Write a sequence for this structure.
């Protein structure tokens, strides 16, 4: 039953067939370049959503506030780093250091919000740290992150799902991060603790849920469909 | 590989042949439990995966790490599938226990029992065999098995009942 010559002949035939299809595929661009391309689409969608929902009344004022700009900058950087990392993880042989790409901007994001909590408490006492329900944040973040998330998922499918859970978690972090970025242009909620819990919390939850679904959604297809 | 990427079929052929030799060695080292046929199947899976993923290779980066990453991922895939198959085999051994009294801790008896059960399954119709595989070996619920097989819960109940009756008849006769 197991004739080595027979089985090697099968491989030789396969190699002959594959080399007839040596026609080169469209090579993937560098993950950073692809992430930038993705960001253009994601931000375009976010702008459209903010315009449709209606920007916050104090937007001009906010744009002059250094703290707001810094928090938004960190959120945007975290999202973009996560997108690049997710794309890189689908390239076989890519450096494992890519997994750490969102760590620094993410730390800045969390750090600036934590400092904000301290500042709010210092300025307003216990009132500054009051936590009220704001579950709409989750919905809006998911909404604004939906198209970017879908686009990024389709981009990921062009690579190889070597670490599907982490890849999808990073992709969701990217999409939800952009969602949060957009949210703050129409949702007038700046209390640091509220942002940390309801907005960043939603981003983290979405990323975690996506990670759990990673194996199912980023399945590596059988090379020889039966 | 660079020549292959620019459409040079001969270069690609030579590359794949060299890769096949290396992969055969790698698979034999990492998965020594596989038969020669299964080893070759896995080598072919890896070659196909490399071929399908060749768009992800950046000519500015070294080829070997790229190739090894794909090979490792397929090996891990294969190991997971093997573990699942081993679990089914274990379940088959459990099934054998339901037909033979105790003493399944004696390895030879277990193996003989398993083979006898397998042989008895050969006497079943395809529908009955499928019912045994889904409901007893893979331990699915009736609803899951119906969804997977495209059959109905009622049909599966009839099939498993008939299968168990036939197998009891075959096995307890011996």
């Amino acid at each position: 039953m197991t004739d080595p010559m027979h089985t090697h002949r099968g491989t030789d035939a396969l190699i002959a067939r594959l080399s007839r299809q040596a026609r080169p595929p469209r090579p993937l661009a560098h993950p950073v370049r692809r992430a930038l391309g993705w960001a253009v689409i994601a931000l375009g969608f976010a702008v459209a959503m903010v315009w449709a929902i209606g920007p916050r009344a104090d937007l001009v004022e906010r744009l002059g506030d250094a703290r707001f700009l810094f928090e938004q900058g960190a959120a945007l950087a975290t999202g973009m780093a996560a997108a690049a990392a997710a794309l890189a993880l689908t390239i076989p042989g890519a450096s494992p250091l890519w997994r750490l790409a969102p760590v620094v901007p993410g730390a800045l994001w969390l750090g600036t919000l934590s400092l904000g909590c301290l500042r709010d408490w210092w300025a307003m006492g216990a009132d500054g740290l009051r936590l009220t329900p704001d579950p709409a944040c989750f919905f809006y973040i998911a909404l604004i992150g939906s198209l970017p998330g879908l686009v990024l998922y389709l981009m990921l499918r062009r690579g190889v799902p070597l670490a599907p859970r982490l890849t999808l978690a990073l992709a969701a972090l990217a999409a939800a991060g952009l969602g949060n970025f957009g949210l703050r242009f129409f949702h007038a909620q700046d209390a640091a603790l509220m942002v940390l819990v309801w907005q960043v919390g939603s981003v983290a939850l979405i990323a975690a849920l996506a990670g759990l679904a990673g194996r199912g959604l980023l399945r590596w297809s059988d090379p020889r469909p039966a | 590989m660079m020549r292959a990427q620019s459409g040079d079929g001969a270069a690609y052929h030579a590359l794949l042949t060299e890769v096949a030799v290396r992969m055969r060695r790698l698979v034999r080292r990492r998965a020594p439990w596989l038969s020669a046929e299964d080893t070759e199947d896995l080598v072919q899976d890896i070659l196909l995966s490399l071929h399908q993923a060749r768009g992800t290779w950046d000519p500015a980066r070294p080829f070997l790490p790229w190739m090894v990453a794909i090979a490792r991922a397929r090996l891990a895939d294969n190991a997971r599938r093997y573990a699942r198959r081993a679990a089914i085999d274990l379940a088959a051994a459990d099934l054998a226990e339901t037909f033979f009294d105790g003493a399944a801790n004696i390895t030879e008896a277990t193996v003989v029992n398993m083979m006898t059960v397998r042989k008895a399954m050969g006497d079943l119709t395809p529908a009955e065999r499928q019912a045994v595989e889904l409901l007893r070996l893979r331990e699915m619920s009736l609803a899951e098995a119906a969804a997977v097989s495209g059959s109905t819960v009622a049909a599966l109940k009839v099939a498993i009942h008939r299968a168990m009756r036939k197998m009891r008849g075959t096995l307890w006769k011996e």
Notes: Helices of chain B lie at 2-5, 9-30, 36-52, 63-99, 107-121, 126-137, 142-149, 153-173.
